[in-house]
Model the fold of this input.
Amino acid sequence: MVEPKVYADFHNADSHGRLRLNCIGTLEDLSQHQVELREGLLLSLYADDLDSEGQLDELLVQGVVSFSEEEHCWVAAIDWAAIRHASDGQGSPTNGSGQSFLSSRPEGHRTKR
Done:
């Protein structure tokens, strides 16, 4: 079974590095795909980003859903080093160094939904 592709704001992480699944784009995608969040659910998460020529090149990563009692919302645990661009295919992390893409990307190359 293919996991639903759901928007996530990669800048909206909790203190444990999990993505909060509470932004409007996330809620819209969950509704559109008729996904009901539950513990252990695997999601394909994406965020808008641009390539070096200014063209849309989404960031992609898989996440495992859980409910955060501390945050009072659903979150997804991700491997930050596994984030990649859609144009990269299934291969390697976004920047290839194992370093979080957020710390290695210029501010101007990120977009928000």
About this structure: The chain has a mean pLDDT of 83. The helical segments are 24-32, 101-104. DSSP finds two helices and six strands in the chain.
